[in-house]
Amino acid sequence: MIQIQRSEAPAVLTTRGAARTRQDCEAYEASPDAYRGGTARFKAVENIYGHATVKAGLLIGQYGKCCYCERKLRASDHGDVEHFRPKSAVRQDANSAEEKLGTIGLRTVGRIS
């Protein structure tokens, strides 16, 4: 896995993305057990997290590579904005219970098949 060089967040993340984050936080706070247990999940919004400006920034910050396998993304492969936490479940630390918080995130560009 490569280290991502972060730059300034694209405007779509600071506007629509920030509003969506507030909505997700409110939904989580209203029923945390549903999210922690996996019956409720967050959903990545394509026109925010998959926006062309987000993908362009990720491609630059990841040197044109998939941040997991480090393969070069082809010019014809636009990549997918992927998760930054495990999709199945997470633990806040070694002593914490598993939480199934969903897959929202924007750290990785590209699955190459």
Can you describe what's shown?
This protein has one domain. It has 113 residues and is an all-alpha fold. It is globular, with a radius of gyration of 15 Å. 16% of the residues are buried.
Descriptors:
113 residues, mainly alpha, 4 helices
Question: Quaternary state, please?
Answer: single chain
Structural class: mainly alpha
What is the percent of helical residues? Answer: 25-40%
Cα-to-Cα separation, first versus last residue:
18 Å
Radius of gyration from the alpha-carbon trace, in angstroms = 15 Å
Count of domains = 1
User: Main β-sheet: number of strands, strand sense, barrel status?
Assistant: none
User: How big a fraction of the residues is strand?
Assistant: under 5%
Number of strands: 0
Mean pLDDT: 76
* Element string (H = helix, E = strand): HHHH
Count of helical stretches: 4
Shape: globular
Low-confidence stretches: 103-113
Short description:
By secondary structure, this protein is mainly α. It has 4 helices and no strands. The chain is globular, with a radius of gyration of 15 Å.
SSE arrangement:
Blueprint: H1 11-30, H2 32-37, H3 46-49, H4 52-61
